[in-house]
Amino acid sequence: MELKYNDVLVTGAAGFIGFHLSKRLLEAGCHVTGVDNVNDYYDVTLKEARLEQLTCFDQFDFFKTDLSDGKGLEKIFTQHKYDVVVNLAAQAGVRYSLINPQAYVNANLTGFVNILECCRHNEVPHLVFASSSSVYGANTKMPFSVHHNVDHPVSLYAASKKANELMAHTYSHLFGLACTGLRFFTVYGPWGRPDMALFLFTKAILADEPIQVFNHGKMQRDFTYIDDIIEGVARVMAKPPEPDPSWRGDNPDPGTSYARYKIYNIGNNNPVELIRFIEVIEDTLGMKAKKVFQDLQPGDVPATYADVDDLVRDVGFKPATSIDEGIRQFVSWYKAYYGVR
Questions:
Q1: CA-to-CA distance for 250 and 238, rounded, in angstroms?
Q2: 3-state SS track over 178-195
Q3: Confidence at residue 103, expressed as pLDDT on a 0 to 100 scale
Q4: Is 20 in a helix, a strand, or coil?
Q5: Rounded distance, CA 111 to CA 330, Å?
Q6: What dihedral do alpha carbons 258, 182, 89, 328 form, nearest 10°?
Q7: Of 104, 157, 225, 305, which one is the catalytic site residue?
């Protein structure tokens, strides 16, 4: 898809998804303003290496700023007239939210309302923001649909993402701000996060160290390759939501609104058992994993499975990269980046 924007603001530009989106936009000739606090939740050198890939573009500006710094954020919004703002900055991680809940309040709640305020006061035409498949929480009806109720989160991380959706809807209702929320499903691929399963497993297997296999390998995830995520984001950016004329207050649809607000799932629409995911990693590496089977962790859910019908209908795209291809691409990147032979 051709990307035609003069100026785009991407928060979380040093992060996994933010880096890939920024690179895609820059390669298309867009001017990108990147914002990131480059925190130490995981390896800072990896974040810096991603940024090095972006700073070689003349049309990339970077601000090391925390979203909770409202005044600092306001100054960035005065730099350009942004066509689209894509908020990908957040405190990530389900399990970490059990240890450091305040980090989620600062980044995901305070930081997000600062983004909303800046978009409102600077008349940004379209805010696209990252939500998460974790908002489905205790839901068991599969596949997960944006038209399902999601009022039973099982982690503070999930609750903070649901809160983002509610906050965005409020700003759309009150101020006419066009907001699109994207529920990402287990994103993986080159330049991925070191705290995610694929990275952890690859590193451990290559070092002949044991891996923790939660829910005894029966966990199911709708693993979604990074290129598919970026294609979905890019297409949604070009389609600001319009009010749904069929929305009714006596039978409210959570996925749409009378306001300029929409939610989409971006997932592979093909859940894979964790044990199968590990087998593909083993086959790709040509090595066997030492597995330590564990129970389901607090805050985790046993399965995720994305209904992407709305995404296909509205923007004509459905993620389809197989885990065999996606894992091969990741392992190739990992070996090159870390000098593994």
A1: 31
A2: CEEEEEECCEECCCCCCC
A3: 85
A4: helix
A5: 31
A6: -170
A7: 157
Q: What is the rounded CA–CA span in Å between residue 329 and residue 121?
A: 42
**What does the alpha-carbon distance between residue 58 and residue 31 come to, in Å, rounded to a whole number?**
9
What is d(CA 88, CA 27) in angstroms, rounded to the nearest whole number?
Answer: 19
Which pLDDT does position 1 carry in this prediction?
A: 64
Using an 8 Å Cβ cutoff, are 203 and 281 in contact?
no
Backbone phi, then psi, for 286, in 5-degree steps?
Answer: 70, 30
Active-site residue, 136 included: no
Q: Are the C-beta atoms of residues 319 and 224 closer than 8 Å to each other?
A: yes
Cβ neighbour number for residue 306 with a 10 Å cutoff: 28
Give Cα separations from 337 to 241, 254, 257, 287, 317 (angstroms): 39, 42, 44, 19, 31
Residue 298 pLDDT more than 90? no
Angle at 48 between CA 19 and CA 41, to 5 degrees: 85
- The predicted model scores a pTM of 0.95
What value does the mean pLDDT of the chain take? 95
